[in-house]
Structures are given as structure tokens and as C-alpha cells.
């Protein structure tokens, strides 16, 4: 035991020569090389059809390469360095992907043009059309937040009422069973007709889509609460209000969050349709506009923004869950 | 300590325990549309501040009797009187401790213990008392832990503290040590006696362990199979603190097992 330890130490000591780059971060170095390569390919290789903004794209790639290089040389210390290290392999993969994309589009034209724009075409969209993209993003966000907030609140109230009061369950359950499974978008023609403005109609449709899963899961969450919790709370002097707010709701919270995730997912789907058919603004509208004009670079650019935005919202919801359900063991981290 | 004095009158520091009278209580459940008689004309009384154990075959209706006393169910026939008054709604002066600790997993140890005061809106005023009870059950240092971070014995202590913090005058214990390992169990038995003697509450303990019943209680009531009737009452005329090796306990144990129809296995 101790002998092995000594042997190991001696071995460490005998290699008195220190490799000068031992503290470097190798993956970062490779990543920097890849991204620098992408920049070089973009600038040096002649395009099939000359394109603007190649230099901007190359500079962006060079910037990423610089960050990786700094990380590589310093050994990426500290918490930020740790995050960079985590992202290292992905940085390499993403760089390779971008390089390949650049080559098969702009440089060789292997992929047919209107449908497969080059990376610099996307850069062009972001540089030239950002005010409109930002506007669309804001419009979509505001619509979604309102619709989802109303839907989640309504779904939660409905589920709670169904789970708690027998009478409420009797009346709501059949309605929910009949209406719930219908895709919310199927109601669009009626809803646009009934509501005064297409904005309020769109909010309603999103609310409708998110309310159903939230209601069902809140309901099942309340129904599956261990009855002993109520008995215990009652012997300790709990009022009905306390039983609902401090026993039933917290106990049902894990279910409720599943419902919220499902509701948020379906509200994304409905948002795009509502924007295309109704409000005629927002990212969904931008998408259908871009498609109508065959502006595929704009299409991809908007899709990317949308993906990032949706992912951010899901992340926010996960953070809220992690905070509120920190008492659960074995939780999946987002 | 004078043994004779310790036998009947524990040094009460809180309010004295409740008197309990069970008068001709019968109870039926409905199972698959058929009536299921569970208690059959059960009657006994318990003195204020005494420690009584209930034993009997599994499924005979012991838990049901405790639920009637807690006010969580109401008897089909007969009267359940606590302190001379028929039991109505559940009340924090009569608290039931379950076999499973059934802690609220989203609440820390302290918040679990604070449940009763919080439900009655007195959590602020009871702050010091809550910490004191957590210390009593030996969980200081774990106040902010969550239930999933506790061992079975610790969880059961929290469940006990959650009851004690309300200063109940009747403590109903439904096999509270049933799932603990034997060492923890022995330690908790001693603690139960200590708590009972210090507070002067009336304790009613359901257990399937004859030794536990004899070691802890002043009187053991033996039930027959469902529907439960009382088949015997054994007075344990031994002072506290007791010794597990006491030959009198062995004698009483033989007697109790005989009433349970298990004499041969001894
Ligand atoms: N809520 C209920 N509905 C129907 N039957 C019940 C209910 N609670 C208990 N029982 C039945 O009553 C009998 C006695 O149960 P219990 O009092 O829990 O027995 P134990 O003496 O083991 O504690 C069992 O047969 C059980 O199945
Ligand atoms: Mg039982």
C-alpha cells in the first residue's frame, strides 16, 4: 500500500523536466484551430457566386477562435473556464459543421441555392434585418406570455377545482374530456370570428392550448396526494384553506410542472399558427412571409431565433422548477 | 428516585392528560358492498396521564380505534369520550402518530415540526417551542434537512416532534416504531417513556410487539381477531424505569402470548 505510494511519488519526481504546455487546455487549442480554419476558408476560398458579409462571418469565427485560444493558453481556470471546458467538444463540432456548411454552399454550390443559403447569407439577415426580427421576437414573446399565463392560471384553477370539489369535478370532467383533446387550432375559425381583435383571439387560442395539459396534470396531482397528509394536517388543526394551499398544492407541484412543460410546448405550436393566420406579426408571421418570398436565409435566421427563444423559456421554467422542487431527490437537471 | 412514586404519577410539567372512555363501541366498514364489522362492543377506560398499550392480531381494528379517538372517523355504534366529551372533529389536543412518519417531503424538518402551530396561525409565537421539541427528540443540527435526507429512525423522531410540539393531552401512537431496526427501536422506546413521564400526557400505543407493550405501558389490552373484542387486560405493576431483563416482564409476556393463542411458541 504505502510502497506503491512511494513508487508513484518517485516516478513523479524523476520526470524533473516539465513539459512547457502541460497546463494548456488541449481541446481549446484544437477548437481554436478549427474556428480559425473556418475563418480562413471563408476569406481565402473563392465563392461560386460572390457574396457579401463573408468577412463579417470570418471575423465572428476568428472571435470564437480567439476566446478558445485564450482559454487554451491560460488552462481555462475558474468557473467561467469550467463552462468553457464543458463547451469545448461542442465548439469543435460546431466549427466543423459551419466549415462544412460554408464549403457545400458558398464555396462549391453543392447544395442548391435558394433552399440552402450560406452562413454569410444568415449573417446578412441578422445585420440588415435585425430591427424587424427583434420586433417579431418581441411581438411573439408578448403574445405567448399573455396566452400562456392565462392558460396556466385557468388550467391550474380548473384542475384544482376538479381535484378538490366533487361537485366541480362532476361538471367540469365531461367538458374537459370532450374539448380537451381537440387541437386548439381547430377552434381558430370560430375564435377569430367571436373575438373582437385577432390579438385577443390569438391570446385565447394559446391559453386554450396550454390550459388543457395544465388542468389535467394539476387534477391528477391533487387526486394522487397521499390521504394521510390530509389526516395529519387535520389533526393538527388545519383549516380547509390550509389543506388546499399548504398540503394539496405543494404535494401536487411535481405534476403541475409536468403540465406546465406540456402546456408551454403546445403553446409554441399554436403561437406560430395563430401568428400566420391571425395577428400577422411575430416570428410565425415572419416565417410565413419569408417562405412566401422564397427568402430562405431569413427563414433559417428566424427559425434559429425562435429555437433559442423557446429553449430559453423552457430553461426559465426548469430553473423555477429546480428552485421550487429542490426537496425532491433524483431530479433531472436541464 | 422513589420507585413507588414513579409508578402512577409521572412528574407532570404540562397539563395533565385526558381521560378516555370507550363505551360499547362497534364499527363497520363497507367493503365491496358488504358490511365489514371491525370493532365489536369494545369498552374500556383509561386514566388521565396513563400509558396503555393495545395489542391484537393484524387487521383486527386497532388502527380504526385510534382513528375514532382522533376524530378522523366516527363509530357506527357506541360512544368515544375523551375528557368526558364525545369526540367530534380532529383536534390538536389528540394527536395520532402513524406507523409511517408521513413527513411532508417539501418541508424541512423544522417546517414539518411547525406544521401544527402554522396551521393554527401560531407559528411565530411557538418558535422557541419548536426548536425545543426538535432538541428533545435529538434532531438539533437537522432542522433544515429535508425528509429524504433522514434515516427511518430520524424521520420517525420528526413525526413524534410534530405531534409533541402541540402539547397534546392524548397521544395516539399507531405502531410508531414498527418499521425501525431493533437498536433504534429500543432507544426510541426509552425516549417515549421519558417523554411521557415528563409531559404527563395520556398515551395509547398500538403495537404488534408484546415485549414493547409490556416494557412501555402500565396496562396492556389484548384484542381478539376481527371483529375485535377485548380478550384480556394485563396490568403491568412495575415501576419506571424498567429493566428489560426483569423476570416479571417474562412472566407477563407468557401470559399475554397465551391470550393471543401463541402460548406454545414460547
Ligand atoms: N377505510 C376503510 N374501508 C374499508 N375497510 C377498512 C378501512 N380501514 C380499515 N379497513 C379494514 O378494517 C380492518 C381493520 O383495519 P385496521 O384497524 O387498520 O387493523 P389493525 O388492527 O391492523 O390496525 C381491516 O380488515 C381493514 O381492511
Ligand atoms: Mg394498524
Structure description:
The complex is a heterodimer of chains A (334) and B (266). With 334 residues, chain A is an all-alpha fold. Chain A is built from 12 helices and no strands. Chain A has helices spanning 2-14, 26-44, 54-74, 78-107, 119-164, 166-179, 188-194, 198-223, 227-235, 240-279, 282-292, 296-324. The longest helix of chain A is centred in the middle third of the chain and has 46 residues, at 119-164. The two termini of chain A are 42 Å apart. Residues 1-13 of chain A have low confidence and may be disordered. By secondary structure, chain B is α/β, with parallel strands linked by helices. The longest helix of chain B is centred in the C-terminal third of the chain and has 18 residues, at 182-199. In chain B, strand 1 and strand 2 (34-46) form a beta hairpin. Chain B has helices at residues 3-8, 62-70, 109-113, 115-119, 127-136, 152-164, 182-199, 210-216, 247-259, and strands at 20-31, 34-46, 51-55, 77-82, 85-86, 94-97, 170-174, 202-206, 219-223, 230-235. Classes of the chains: A mainly alpha (334), B alpha/beta (266). The A-B interface holds A 226, 228-229, 231-239, 242, 246-247, 250-251, 253, 325, 327-329 and B 70-72, 89-92, 94-96, 98, 100, 102, 104-108, 115-116, 118-120, 146-148, 162, 166. The structure holds adenosine-5'-diphosphate and magnesium ion. Adenosine-5'-diphosphate binds at residues 29, 31, 36, 38, 58-64, 226 of chain B.
Amino acid at each position: 500500500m504505502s510502497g506503491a505510494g512511494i513508487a508513484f511519488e518517485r516516478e513523479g519526481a524523476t520526470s524533473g523536466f516539465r513539459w512547457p504546455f502541460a497546463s494548456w487546455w488541449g481541446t481549446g487549442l484544437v477548437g481554436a484551430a478549427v474556428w480559425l480554419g473556418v475563418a480562413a476558408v471563408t476569406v481565402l476560398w473563392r465563392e461560386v457566386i460572390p457574396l457579401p458579409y463573408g468577412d463579417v462571418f470570418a471575423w465572428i469565427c476568428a472571435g470564437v477562435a480567439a476566446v478558445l485560444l485564450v482559454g487554451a493558453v491560460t488552462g481555462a481556470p475558474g468557473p467561467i473556464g469550467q463552462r468553457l471546458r464543458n463547451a469545448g467538444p461542442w465548439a469543435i463540432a460546431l466549427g466543423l459543421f459551419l466549415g462544412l456548411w460554408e464549403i457545400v454552399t458558398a464555396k462549391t454550390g453543392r447544395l442548391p441555392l435558394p433552399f440552402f443559403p450560406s452562413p454569410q447569407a444568415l449573417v446578412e439577415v441578422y445585420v440588415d434585418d435585425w430591427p424587424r426580427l427583434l420586433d417579431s421576437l418581441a411581438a411573439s414573446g408578448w403574445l405567448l406570455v399573455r396566452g400562456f399565463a392565462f392558460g396556466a392560471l385557468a388550467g391550474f384553477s380548473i384542475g384544482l377545482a376538479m381535484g378538490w370539489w366533487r361537485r366541480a369535478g362532476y361538471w367540469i370532467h365531461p367538458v374537459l374530456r370532450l374539448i380537451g383533446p381537440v387541437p386548439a387550432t381547430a377552434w381558430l375559425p370560430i375564435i377569430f370570428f367571436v373575438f373582437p381583435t385577432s390579438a385577443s383571439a390569438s391570446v385565447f387560442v394559446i391559453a386554450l392550448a396550454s390550459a388543457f395539459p395544465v388542468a389535467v396534470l394539476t387534477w391528477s396531482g391533487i387526486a394522487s396526494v397521499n390521504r394521510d397528509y390530509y389526516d395529519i394536517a387535520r389533526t393538527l388543526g388545519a383549516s380547509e384553506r390550509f389543506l388546499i394551499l399548504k398540503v394539496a398544492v405543494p404535494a401536487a407541484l411535481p405534476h403541475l410542472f409536468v403540465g406546465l412543460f406540456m402546456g408551454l410546448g403546445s403553446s409554441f405550436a399554436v403561437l406560430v399558427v395563430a401568428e400566420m393566420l391571425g395577428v400577422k406579426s411575430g416570428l410565425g408571421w415572419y416565417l410565413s412571409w419569408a417562405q412566401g418570398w422564397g427568402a430562405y436565409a431569413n427563414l433559417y435566421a428566424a427559425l434559429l431565433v425562435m429555437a433559442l427563444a423557446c429553449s430559453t423559456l423552457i430553461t426559465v421554467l426548469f430553473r423555477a422548477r429546480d428552485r421550487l422542487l429542490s426537496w425532491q431527490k433524483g431530479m433531472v437537471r436541464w | 428516585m422513589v420507585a413507588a412514586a414513579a409508578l402512577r404519577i409521572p412528574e407532570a410539567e404540562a397539563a395533565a392528560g385526558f381521560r378516555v372512555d370507550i363505551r360499547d363501541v362497534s364499527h363497520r366498514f363497507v367493503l365491496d358492498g358488504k358490511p365489514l364489522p371491525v370493532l365489536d362492543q369494545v369498552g374500556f377506560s383509561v386514566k388521565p396521564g396513563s400509558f396503555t398499550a393495545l395489542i391484537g392480531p393484524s387487521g383486527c381494528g386497532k388502527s380504526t380505534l385510534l382513528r375514532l379517538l382522533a376524530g378522523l372517523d366516527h363509530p357506527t355504534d357506541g360512544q368515544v369520550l375523551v375528557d368526558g366529551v364525545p369526540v367530534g372533529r380532529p383536534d390538536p389536543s389528540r394527536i395520532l402518530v402513524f406507523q409511517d412518519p408521513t413527513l411532508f417531503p417539501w418541508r424541512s424538518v423544522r417546517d414539518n415540526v411547525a406544521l401544527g402551530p402554522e396551521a393554527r396561525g401560531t407559528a411565530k409565537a411557538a418558535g422557541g417551542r419548536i426548536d425545543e421539541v426538535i432538541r428533545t427528540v435529538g434532531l438539533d443540527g437537522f432542522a433544515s434537512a429535508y425528509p429524504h435526507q433522514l434515516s427511518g429512525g430520524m424521520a420517525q423522531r420528526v413525526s413524534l416532534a410534530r405531534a409533541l410540539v402541540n402539547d397534546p393531552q392524548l397521544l395516539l401512537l399507531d405502531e410508531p416504531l414498527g418499521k425501525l431496526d431493533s437498536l433504534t427501536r429500543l432507544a426510541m422506546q426509552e425516549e417515549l417513556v421519558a417523554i411521557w413521564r415528563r409531559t404527563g400526557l395520556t398515551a395509547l400505543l398500538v403495537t404488534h410487539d408484546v415485549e414493547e407493550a409490556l416494557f412501555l405501558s402500565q396496562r396492556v389490552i389484548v384484542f381478539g381477531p376481527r371483529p375485535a373484542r377485548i380478550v384480556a387486560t394485563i396490568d403491568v405493576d412495575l415501576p419506571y424505569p424498567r429493566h428489560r431483563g426483569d423476570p416479571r416482564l417474562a412472566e407477563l409476556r407468557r401470559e399475554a402470548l397465551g391470550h393471543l393463542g401463541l402460548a406454545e411458541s414460547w
